[in-house]
Amino acid sequence: MLLALGASAAGASPVLNIGHRGASGYAPEHTFASYDLALKLGADYIEQDLQMTSDGVLVVMHDETLDRTARGPAEDCTGPVKTKTLAQIKRCDASSWFGPQFAGERIPTLEEVFQRYGRQANYYIETKSPEIYPGMEEALLALLGRYGLREPAAARWQVLIQSFSPESLLRVHELDPSLPLIQLTSAGAGPLVQLPAISRYAVGIGPSMGDVDAQLIAAAHAQCLAVHPYTVNEAADMRRIVELGIDGAFTNFPDRFDAVLGRRVTSARRAASDAAEAWRRCAQRR
Hints:
Shape: globular
Helix content: 25-40%
Radius of gyration: 18 Å
Largest sheet: 9 strands, mixed
CATH class: Alpha Beta
CATH architecture: Alpha-Beta Barrel
Distance between the termini: 10 Å
Oligomer: single chain
CATH topology: TIM Barrel
Low-confidence stretches: 1-11
Structural class: alpha/beta
Number of strands: 9
Order of helices and strands: EHEEHHHEHHEHEHEHEHEHH
Number of domains: 1
């Protein structure tokens, strides 16, 4: 059993605090305002959901369509992301929907995120709806290579790549088997039966918080799979899943989770590196 992955289990590495779309409880999701705040509030990782423009640029946005979070000319800022060029998307305001104090933030490209934070942050990147974006995985790996992130991703989990799509993760694994992958599972999907197959290409699972119990964690750890549930926002739920032995969690409120975890002094880089090392030790024992 991989008890060493979570501080609540054996204390060998800290539980990872993952800023869900940044600090999206306080600032508009997937904007630099949200990412900056997440890092300030104690997040070990900032999450990027990927979409792709019609001219092949990876942009950071949760939805396949612009309507919920973009404001601007209808011809540019409504409808599917895949039908818009990057120039069109850059005409959209990505933040005023959340509050007027954030007006003016733009939808970032993944490259702009890497340019802003470089190797100073840990990234948790999701290939979102990859079936509608041919070449998404290749574009992602090309950017990781351009910004020198593939080696630190493999060595110390500076980048984790997640998806609900096993096909997308298997494509990434085919392109670069050294990269750490997380298989997301839908709420109520019963991930227990999937664990042996997942362990052949991934280092962890991302279940819905409601699916997490002691049995799932024990079974995942027995397969050397970390458990990073989504999305945990209330302190009582945070304490419950930490006590169960999870290895990290997504939250819209990184400061709340940091408080539950005890205001750790461990750096984000060290936390990620320790998690990677715990996984390697488990894999060597199997």
